[in-house]
Design a protein that fits this description.
With 321 residues, this protein is an all-alpha fold. It contains 15 helices and no strands.
């Protein structure tokens, strides 16, 4: 019984360290907005999003970590170990609009050149959801050329360009979509694109309008929180993150952003707020132990480490019964 419990604690500890390394390294090794990647790795929705299907890649990759969390008794806590995941980042070569040579191609899937704009759009959507972004650009470009007023095709084209790393083209497509129709999704995508281009005030304007149309949309609110962070509007960012995912994850996301900005005292404040919601939260305890030590609060660091050890023991204790 004791041996099994010790093994479980050791596994949980190794996974905790591994999750830390993944979080720390993810912004260096992967493409995309570094702040957004931090939120993604904690399980929060962020960034641009096409309609239908969601981010299948994230769901597949996070599944093993959620399963591990359930194995060690943490299945009901969305901010424990199982939410930490590493999303594979793929690099796609630059392509032209009319000629696509994408390494992810898995066979010809283009519709006939005589097809309608909507048929090209649906083909592009399917390719986009499969991660075949170069081909998606080709089909969606055909769709908007056949019907320049097809709002959703412009929006999807913007998403495809964003995935390809063509930030300016993505922004142009999202702007065309918003001019045709202002819905929550197109405003969100344009807002995030503006955020990525460093136009934070304009991003906030679009994202606030999107949030009015979809008040409970997690992705929109997290994007808004990121933009507020970049402008130094910490209270507004905290409110947005909390509205997006609740008090616990909202505080954890704020703490992570404060750490990224080198604001250790503020990070401590938000990790402590996360502990007010969940005193045994492993992420908060782990980071507090490190931050307290770093700022010279040794006794508090020792207390946090002791609480962390107890929390890890409690989270694995049920496996030995």
């Amino acid at each position: 019984m004791k041996k099994r419990r010790i093994i479980a604690i050791l596994i949980a500890f190794v996974l905790t360290i591994g999750a830390t390394a993944m979080w720390s390294a993810s912004t260096i090794e992967r493409e995309g907005d570094p702040d957004a990647i931090v939120l993604e790795d904690s399980g929060s929705d962020v960034g641009v999003q096409p309609k239908k299907g969601g981010n299948k890649v994230v769901k597949v990759i996070t599944a093993p970590f959620k399963a591990i969390g359930r194995l060690f008794g943490a299945g009901k806590d969305p901010n424990r170990l199982q939410r930490m995941s590493e999303k594979d980042a793929e690099r796609f070569e630059s392509v032209g609009v009319t000629k696509i040579d994408d390494a992810s191609t898995q066979g010809e899937k283009k519709v006939s050149s005589a097809s309608s704009a909507r048929e090209h759009m649906e083909a592009g959507r399917e390719l986009l959801m499969e991660g075949r972004y170069g081909e998606a650009v080709s089909e969606l470009t055909m769709a908007v050329s056949l019907d320049p007023k097809l709002t959703e095709a412009h929006n999807l084209l913007g998403v495809a360009y964003d995935k390809k790393g063509f930030a300016e083209r993505a922004k142009d497509s999202f702007e065309r979509a918003v001019k045709l129709e202002e819905d929550a999704e197109t405003l969100n995508n344009l807002g995030f694109s503006l955020y990525q281009n460093g136009n934070y005030r304009a991003a906030i304007d679009r994202l606030k309008r999107a949030a009015k149309l979809a008040p409970g949309d997690e992705r929109i609110l997290n994007n808004l929180g990121l933009a507020y962070c970049r402008l130094g509007k910490i209270d507004e960012a905290h409110k947005a993150f909390t509205r997006a995912t609740g008090a616990l994850t909202g505080n954890l996301n704020m703490a992570k952003m404060m750490e990224r900005f080198g604001r250790e005292d503020d990070a401590i404040k938000f990790y402590e707020a996360a502990r007010d919601v969940d005193p045994n939260n492993i992420m908060a305890l782990r980071r507090l132990a490190d931050l307290y030590q770093r700022v010279g609060r040794a006794s508090e660091a020792d207390t946090a480490r002791a609480a962390l050890a107890l929390a890890l023991n409690n989270s694995t204790g049920n496996t030995g019964r």
